[in-house]
Design goal:
about 250 residues, 2 domains, seven-stranded mixed β-sheet, binds adenosine-5'-triphosphate, SH3 type barrels
């Protein structure tokens, strides 16, 4: 049940595994970095900007991991991309899937969303900060999910011919996430630029950034803080921020 002295706590149904971890941090519960909460279902699973992460009971994974980010908040910008790469590594190495990261926080297989990442910060803005890393990973989506998700999605059982052992999946996800977090603590997002560019869903493709005003151009990867580089007809621009969404152009 442990990686070092980090724990894996298992809950049946919860509001959101990120909320549960954030509450524990605020209540000053002792938690070892790398500790994880998983649940069988979430009644209030969250995406970015108040969106919902549909989290039915069944076989999906709802996973949150605690970490202490030594470089503080400015470094957190590329973190969700680096975690997306941890999920890609898992899907590629264990399930032989052609997994891609969609900037800034989703994991796609065969053009459909299989997993999403939600990084949330806790505590003071000084040197180090506590982070909670949420990952929703679809293992087996019930038939009625179509009514709840307005964009193409998929799951591990559809994409892989391999048997999925969820206990092993949780342990392996924790291992991959902690490995990436350790790498991130040493060198920040800069260490992941090349890997991101190899696994970028929209590499060198026309894209449309839903910003104000919106921007159309060719996706040219990311900079060392995790900002997206878009080549427009006039210039090459870098855009940052958890408020933006990217689409195929
Ligand atoms: P987008 O993914 O559209 O660029 P986003 O990154 O802001 O936007 P997220 O916050 O990552 O979106 O995820 C929430 C969205 O993902 C929901 O609005 C819904 O469309 C979709 N979604 C919700 N639950 C699931 C799920 N279990 N599997 C796949 N997609 C989901």
């Amino acid at each position: 049940q442990t990686a070092g002295s980090a724990q894996i706590l298992v809950q049946h149904i919860t509001d959101s595994t990120n909320c549960q971890l954030l509450q524990r941090l605020q209540g000053r519960h002792e938690l070892e970095p790398g500790s994880v909460i998983v649940a069988e279902a979430q009644s209030a699973g969250r995406g970015r900007r108040g969106r919902t992460w549909y989290s039915p009971f069944g076989t999906n994974l709802y996973f949150s991991c605690y970490w202490r980010l030594e470089q503080g908040i400015p470094a957190a910008m590329g973190l969700s991309l680096a975690i997306g790469l941890a999920v890609c590594r898992l899907l590629q190495q264990y399930y032989q899937l052609d997994a891609k990261v969609k900037w800034p926080n989703d994991i796609y297989v065969n053009g459909k969303k299989l997993a999403g990442v939600l990084v949330e910060l806790s505590g003071t803005l000084d040197a180090g900060c506590d982070v909670v890393i949420g990952i929703g990973l679809n293992v087996g989506m019930p038939e009625q999910s179509k009514q709840h998700i307005e964009q193409p999605y998929t799951d591990l059982r559809t994409e892989s011919s391999q048997q999925v052992d969820r206990n092993l999946l949780v342990v392996e996800l924790q291992r991959q996430v902690v490995t990436v977090l350790q790498e991130f603590n040493v060198a920040g997002f800069a260490a992941f630029i090349a890997e991101f560019n190899q696994n970028d869903l929209y590499a060198n493709q026309p894209v449309y950034l839903m910003a104000k005003p919106s921007i159309s151009g060719i996706c040219r990867g990311v900079d060392k803080q995790g900002g997206i580089i878009i080549e427009t007809s006039q210039s090459t621009e870098v855009h940052y921020g958890g408020e933006l969404s990217l689409r195929a152009g």
